[in-house]
User: Fold this.
Amino acid sequence: MSKVLIVRWCEIHLKGKNRGFFEKLLYDNIKHAIKDINCNLVRIPGRYLIENLSDLDVETCILKLKAVSGIHSVSLATCIETSVENVKKVALDVCKDKVGTFKVETKRADKKFEIQSTDFSRMIGAEILKSNKNLSVDVHSPNFTLYIDIRENNKTHVFTNTIKMMGGMPVGSSGKGMVMLSGGIDSPVASYMMAKRGMKLEAVHFHSYPYTGELAKQKVIELAKIISNYSQGLTLHIVKFTEIQEAIHEKLPEEYMITMMRRFMMRISERLANKQGAGAIITGECLGQVASQTVESITSSQNAVNVLPVLRPLIGFDKLEIIDIATNIGTYETSVLPYEDCCTVFLPKYPVIKPKLEKVEYFETLLNVEGLIENALNNTEVIKL
Ligand code: ATP
Ligand code: MG
Assistant:
């Protein structure tokens, strides 16, 4: 008898011929996430098992797995050699201190096991009722379910608890994206959403030293570190944006400040994406949240991108829904630290809500767009997390 952690995957069963690729990728991602824990990761039909895990490491291991996209759920199970006697013994032991209602659910991957699933559930259920007078059966909404999973290799897993995990697809299965990471609440959540769909990530942050300070930069590095747990590592490009902001501030109408900044940010992000082999730009934009996120503003920033798609996973979310996710993934507390982002430097009192594309394009003829972009790209710091 031993303890094992059963790890179930999401959606991989939908992937016909590529299934092997997805299974291997998820295997490698799990292996990487739990590399500091002493245990064995094995693949059995339809799932993975983590064996030889010390009791002390179970919680840490589950916590690490929570950040691995592609995992549907995990269960801590007792693993025994398949036999009626063994299952009975474990079932009675698992249920001995329980009170309330229960049911038993048996799955027979091993059809050689002689008793049919429903009969076996009934038989074990009857034994439990006999040994624990504080329990009664409720097959519709029991307080707990005892699962008996009879596997092919003469092993049976018995468990009562299933913990829901991140879901999604394994990181690395959906290409790479360049996320525009500010110090705010939204873009870390957008990063998480795309990692969850299997994207590898790199991030770009624009800062305006000395208008924004060292602490603002550290905050973004901290956010990037948290995201890197979900994205299997992250490279952060920190671009000095000061010269661009000063040029816009000096030469162009105040109300167009943010609109023009966004276009520069998009262009630089696309160049970095191309250089790093990323196939998409990701932002934390959310429709209507602020003046720079109206359809017209989005049109204006989108227009600065040549080819790549701009993915906006939060476009239809409410702020409270975003905050909920930020809290769950552990970025919220850092995001709300009160350091300035470059967008608040030279912030216009009344930013334009419906920028006009013709105007925006005309304004850019008044700047040395190419030279400013080149300079900014040459003033980029790269941090691998
Ligand atoms: P966030 O909470 O992500 O900062 P926000 O609600 O403050 O978003 P905006 O400031 O309008 O919204 O920014 C919209 C998006 O533009 C951000 O989600 C982010 O993807 C990108 N962005 C804004 N500022 C920066 C920055 N300094 N560096 C990199 N990307 C940025
Ligand atoms: Mg912001």
